[in-house]
Amino acid sequence: MVNITDFQKIGIGLVGFGTFFNLMGIMLMFDKGLLAIGNLMFLAGLTMIIGLERTMRFFFQRHKLKGTAFFMGGILVVLFGYPVIGMAVESYGFLSLFGGFIPTIVGFARGIPGLNLIFAIPFVNRSSLTVSGNQIF
């Protein structure tokens, strides 16, 4: 069993609340206050989960610098008051940085009892198999 420290528990909560605030900010017509708070909470939570040194190492690897620049630039654009443009730039950076984790997340989600019903839908099944790298036929 993996031991989770109190800082990591707080970090998980911050990432969760950051994701929630980002989703609410998008649903409420790109509310820049909610998006800014969500972005800051997400980054703070990520830092608390994996630590400051590992966060810096992750974001500033040579092959991830473009994604980091777009992600951080999008956050700055949101903070300066242009939420639609900022979220578009930030989304590109997010996919560049965390796109390698998507197959793992899809594979994990396929095993969750409630979500496996969603993955049984033919279109979703084909899409998830393509994303996770499994053969369709």
* Radius of gyration based on Cα positions: 17 Å
**Structural class computed from helices and strand pairing:** mainly alpha
Average pLDDT confidence is 91
The gross shape turns out to be globular
Q: What sequence of helices (H) and strands (E) makes up the elements? A: HHHHHHHH
State the total count of DSSP E strands: 0
Residue fraction in strands:
under 5%
Helices, by number, come to 8
Residue ranges: pLDDT <50 for 5 or more in a row? Answer: none
Helix content bin: over 70%
- Main beta-sheet strand count, sense and barrel state: none
**Cα distance, first to last residue?**
37 Å
Description:
It is a single chain. The radius of gyration is 17 Å and the shape is globular. By secondary structure, the protein is mainly alpha-helical. The protein is built from 8 helices and no strands. Helix 1 (6-27) packs antiparallel against helix 2.
Short overview:
This protein is mainly α.
Question: What secondary-structure arrangement, pairings included, does this model have?
Answer:
Layout: H1 6-27, H2 32-50, H3 52-59, H4 65-79, H5 83-98, H6 102-110, H7 115-118, H8 122-132
